[in-house]
Amino acid sequence: MRVFDPFHIVGPMNEAVNDVRKREHRPLSEEGRSPLSGARFWWLYGRENLPERHRVGFAALQAAHRKTGRAYAIKEALRDLWAQDSWRIGAADCRWWHLWATHSRR
Residues in domain Transposase IS204/IS1001/IS1096/IS1165 DDE (predicted)? Predict the structure, then answer.
């Protein structure tokens, strides 16, 4: 029997978000202007755990850096699957999430 827990499911998603952030950061860094460099760990927080003092800046980063912001949103949607009360709703949401994640551009 396999048992999945949120920590081991979301961990690889955090790595994926960081990979997208690096790809988006690299060209900006070469130009000498990357706001992504000082916010590396913000993307690892769950939305409810992001410190209040970083929320406005993080929202601006999400809007400005669409690929990393989209990867973060996909990660957070996966985390939301664990909060489902109903197996049936969770299964439908899981199919929706899988479609979104697999059809999202890198």
Answer: 2-105
In angstroms, what CA-CA distances link 35 with 27, 66, 80? 12, 13, 28
Q: What is the pLDDT of residues 56-66, one digit of tens each?
A: 999 999 998 88
Question: Is 77 within a domain?
Answer: yes
Sign of CA dihedral 98, 103, 105, 106: positive
pLDDT number for residue 36:
75
Our count of domains for the chain comes to 1
Percent of the chain with pLDDT over 70: 96
Does residue 38 lie in a domain region? yes
> Quick check: is 1 in a domain?
no
Q: Does residue 24 lie within any of the structural domains? A: yes
CB distance 42 to 61 below 8 Å: yes
Does the pLDDT at position 18 exceed 70? yes
Domain that holds residue 66: 6-103
